[in-house]
Design a protein that fits this description.
The protein is of the alpha/beta class and about 450 residues long. The protein has two domains: about 290 residues, FAD/NAD(P)-binding domain, CATH 3.50.50.60; about 150 residues, Beta Barrel (Elongation Factor Tu (Ef-tu), domain 3), CATH 2.40.30. It has 13 helices and 16 strands. It has a six-stranded antiparallel beta sheet. A hairpin with a 4-residue loop joins strand 4 and strand 5. The protein is globular, with a radius of gyration of 23 Å. It starts with 7 loop residues before the first strand and ends with a helix. The structure holds flavin-adenine dinucleotide (FAD). Flavin-adenine dinucleotide (FAD) binds next to helix 1 and helix 11.
Length: about 450
């Protein structure tokens, strides 16, 4: 099959690995795609097919002025196999791109298996190959043996088995008339946005939280969830007593609104808040803010309903909901370059949920870039990073430059894109402008890439 060309190894035949293997083969290089199913099943997969959708059959909003839709559009422009197959097997789903899941995965399995440059090997890989070019794409439920080897390679502290994340909201949807910027006891620069409660507001919030509906925990996650006793969901803190949150993440001490004068003055004492919810900046430009200590297992609709009763968050736009679930991911800000190559070993690449992107379409996007770059390395070409103004480029720039200390997986969203040159107040128009800029920049990038390839061929 491969002559004297050493095949690239892609480990994991999920959304990311399938796209990566296809891009490598389409670039004319042989590839071995390792998938452990059906020989060994993950706790969430049920079939032997490649790119199985483990839960919902939806790839998110279709419209290109929505974050998921923009990512689909970019991937269509880049000839992604996953998105082309999703388009072919789409089912009616209102404004979303949803697919007939069985036919979608069967079609992808057949397409890969019949490609002359793809060898599909049904084996569990337990050790990362030490030579050659490899793409790791084993997903949120990476098998334990490989996870152990990856931990050894990356270092224990750069590896997570569990995602206990707080919701993230768009900065411009926080009411700054209510929320104030301050750090506790005015230490260092004012780094937190603080949402102050009076007693009545706090009690209403506490009661709403105690009554809110939980998302079901999967059987295979129960043990891991117990293991994380030290990182309790906010609703569990609420259930432990009326004041438990006020002695935990909502403690009001040392936080004062400078607009009310010197907080040490006795006449200002009465203005001190009864409780405070804090938001910490998540990105360099301050477009994304993370609700500190609000990891939660509530249903997504319930999170929006209850957290919007926090003073200042009435109009909050959520870009990521809080979660507590099993999710294997590496500390990409420490380990990866925006090309998805490991910093210390550029012939090793990673893609998909393992890198801390979130969702099916983001996994396909990671597979596209890691596969493209693996093939380019084999062909002796420079590896690529996408323009930061595209949703793909912004996502990979974010996961490789976020704060390593607080790193949590990120779905595609407009908050990670660089701000526009001019401020557009209307949200729909603003997102349309992000879309127009992203697609124009992607087109220019592709044209330049194709013309430099043509010049290389002609010399
Ligand atoms: C329970 C659950 C529900 C989810 N629901 C959704 C949802 O509704 N919508 C959504 O967008 N996202 C959902 N996700 C996130 C979802 O996993 C990702 O969006 C997507 O599947 C990630 O693609 P991936 O290619 O990174 O991983 P996967 O699609 O999981 O692919 C990884 C593949 O690697 C294989 N593998 C693992 N270890 C080895 C090994 N050692 N050797 C060989 N093969 C191996 C696995 O069998 C699997 O086929 C869910 C995740 C979980 C765990």
């Amino acid at each position: 099959m491969s002559g004297d060309r050493e095949p690239i190894q892609v480990i994991g035949g999920g959304l990311a690995g399938t796209e990566a293997a296809w891009q490598i083969a389409q670039a004319g290089w042989p590839v071995v795609l390792h998938e452990m199913r059906p020989q060994r099943q993950s706790p969430a997969h049920h079939s032997a097919e490649l790119a199985e959708l483990v839960c919902s059959n939806s790839f998110g909003a279709l419209s290109s002025d929505r974050a998921a839709g923009l990512l689909h559009t970019e991937l269509r422009q880049l000839r992604s196999l996953i998105i082309a197959t999703a388009d072919t097997h789409a089912v009616p789903a209102g404004g979303a791109l949803a697919v007939d899941r069985a036919v979608f995965s069967q079609q992808l399995t057949q397409t890969l298996a019949s490609h002359p440059l793809v060898e599909l090997r049904r084996t569990e890989v337990t050790q990362i190959p030490t030579t050659g070019i490899t793409v790791l794409a084993t997903g949120p439920l990476t098998s334990p043996a490989l996870a152990e080897d990856l931990q050894r390679l990356t270092g224990l502290e750069y590896f997570s088995f569990f995602d206990a994340a707080s919701p993230i909201v768009m900065g411009d949807s926080i009411d700054r008339e209510v929320a104030f910027l301050a750090s506790r006891y005015d230490k260092g620069e004012a780094a937190y946005l603080n949402c102050p409660f009076d007693r009545e507001q706090y009690l209403a919030f506490w009661q709403a939280l105690c009554r809110a509906e939980q998302a079901p925990v999967k059987d295979f996650e129960l043990d891991t969830a117990k293991f994380f006793e030290g990182c309790l969901p906010i609703e569990e803190l609420a259930r432990r007593g009326e004041d438990t949150m006020r002695y935990g993440p909502l403690k009001p001490v040392g936080l004062f609104d400078a607009r009310h004068g010197d907080f040490r003055a006795p006449e200002n004492r009465a203005k001190r808040p009864y409780a405070v919810a804090q938001l910490r900046q998540e990105d360099k430009t301050g477009q994304l803010w993370n609700l500190v200590g609000f990891q939660t297992n509530l249903r997504w609709g319930e999170q929006k309903r209850v957290f919007r009763t926090i003073p200042g968050l009435e109009q909050a736009e959520f870009v990521r909901m809080g979660v507590m679930h099993r999710n294997t991911f590496i500390n990409s800000p420490q380990l990866l370059q925006p090309t998805l190559q490991f910093r210390d070993r550029p012939t090793l690449l990673a893609a998909g949920q393992l890198t801390g992107t979130e969702g099916y379409t983001a996994a396909a996007a990671g597979g596209w870039l890691a596969g493209t770059n693996a093939a380019r390395l084999a062909l002796g070409l420079e590896s690529l990073a996408l323009p930061a103004s595209t949703m793909m480029g912004a996502l990979f720039a974010f996961i490789t430059s976020a704060s390593p200390k607080h790193f949590q997986p990120m779905p595609p969203n407009f908050g990670i894109l660089p701000p526009l040159a001019t401020r557009i107040r209307n949200k729909r128009e603003r997102y349309g402008a992000y879309r127009d800029r992203a697609l124009a920049d992607l087109q220019a990038w592709q044209t330049q890439l194709e013309s430099s390839a043509a010049i290389a061929l002609s010399v």
